[in-house]
Design goal:
360 residues; alpha/beta; 13 strands; two-stranded parallel ribbon; 12 helices; 14% strand; binds nicotinamide-adenine-dinucleotide; Rossmann fold; 43% helix
């Protein structure tokens, strides 16, 4: 479990803070008194959580730097003098990876090289968490979950680029002994309010339901480890705290997935989301079979994070869907999304504390 008091006054660098996960992370850290600098491009979507929740108001510094440009990135990283770095900036979409493989590798692989090369030379920096994905595993369509030592792979360019980011991290860790401790974090399919990316299940549902049309599913039977965005973020925080405290053993790869059995088929999630959304929301199967390969089954084993970090998911499938649908309904009805997002973070903290007291 993360110790939120740890973050007061900490200097934190988040790359990708204008994105979906980065915005939630920046809001959460700023709420606990961290001095957060963000490095990213402009928000990747319109609308965006970054703008709706006015993330910039809580930042110490809001920088637009392209991580493919090593020199500019180095200057920004050096000037920040962060205690802790969270590296989330990426080209994160599978479909985009097929369309623009070279850009995807440039951002996800060389961007990670540039970031680690710079951050490991900043004396103040003691902990770096590199965010990759559950897709880094060589997918063998196993029914059982993947564990951290399983083989890396990746058939599509996005998955492959993130597996490469894992290898890059191992190398930079090995060739810079004595520098910051570096770990990688592999989360599942993250959902939650404020994601507006194209070709992602929940944003596709929201766009369709808000327009009064059925959402069309391309991979209805694909099984994915869906989880609320705050669950893996709490894992990243707990991991960073452990690295900062000087635990060399933590400087490796970590899975942060849903509870065992918490995975679900795409169609089940879409149907439950439609039911929670209400009105006339409905789901249909796409007429044409998908052209591009996607893995059929993907499960993550998070035993290591549970036992070694005391981390666990707080919101189950139903609660995750309910909070996510509420967020988008509120947005659709014109609510103040900075307020609503802060309320959801507060609710998560209360539920996390209750769960922790119950299980310890
Ligand atoms: N959303 C998910 O389900 C999920 C699951 C597992 C892992 N991840 C990983 O989490 C991270 C964040 O994902 P997200 O869903 O928030 O993505 P997102 O598209 O919402 O945000 C991406 C962020 O990266 C920044 N960025 C992209 N290219 C950049 C560049 N060249 N230079 C600087 N900044 C750049 C964008 O400006 C944005 O701030 C990514 O590393 C992604 O691979 C996401």
């Amino acid at each position: 479990m993360a110790n939120l008091g740890f973050w007061a006054g900490r200097r934190v660098l988040i790359t990708g803070h204008t994105g979906f996960k980065g915005s939630w992370l920046a809001l959460w850290l700023a709420r606990h008194g961290a001095a957060v600098t963000g490095i990213a491009l402009d928000p990747p979507t319109k609308p965006s959580l970054f703008e709706l929740a006015r993330v910039h108001e809580g930042l110490e510094s809001d920088l637009r730097v392209d991580i493919r440009e090593a020199g500019a990135l180095r200057s920004a990283v050096e000037a920040t003098e962060a205690d802790v770095v969270f590296h989330l900036a990426a080209q994160p979409l599978v479909a985009e990876g097929y369309d623009r493989p070279a850009d995807t590798f440039a951002t996800n692989v060389m961007g990670t090289v540039h970031l680690l090369d710079a951050a490991t030379q900043v004396p103040a920096t003691r902990a770096i968490v590199v965010v990759t994905t559950d897709k880094v595993y060589e997918n063998r369509e196993w029914p059982h979950p993947y564990r951290e030592p399983d083989q890396l792979g990746g058939r599509d360019p996005y998955a492959s680029s993130k597996a490469c980011a894992e290898l890059v991290t191992s190398s930079l860790r090995a060739c810079r002994p004595g520098a910051a401790r570096i770990a990688t974090a592999r989360a599942g399919n993250v959902i939650g309010g404020g994601d507006f990316a194209r070709d992602r299940l929940v944003p596709d549902c929201v766009r369709a339901f808000a327009a009064g049309t059925p959402v069309s599913l391309r991979y209805p039977g694909a099984i994915r480890p869906f989880q609320h965005v705050l669950d893996p973020l709490s894992g990243y925080l707990a991991l960073a705290e452990r690295l900062f405290a000087g635990d060399d053993g933590a400087a490796e790869a970590w899975n942060f997935g849903p509870e065992p059995g918490g995975e679900a088929p795409v169609a089940a999630l879409a149907r439950r989301f439609a039911a929670v959304w209400g009105e006339d929301a409905s789901v249909e199967l796409a007429d044409t079979p998908p052209e591009r390969h996607e893995a059929g089954i993907l499960r993550l084993d998070s035993t290591k994070a549970r036992t070694a970090l005391g981390w666990r998911p707080v919101w189950d499938f139903e609660e995750t869907l309910r909070h996510t649908a509420e967020w988008y309904r509120d947005w659709h009805q014109g609510a103040d999304m900075a307020e609503r997002t802060a309320e959801q973070i507060a609710r998560y903290e209360t539920d996390d504390a209750a769960l922790h007291n119950f299980t310890h």
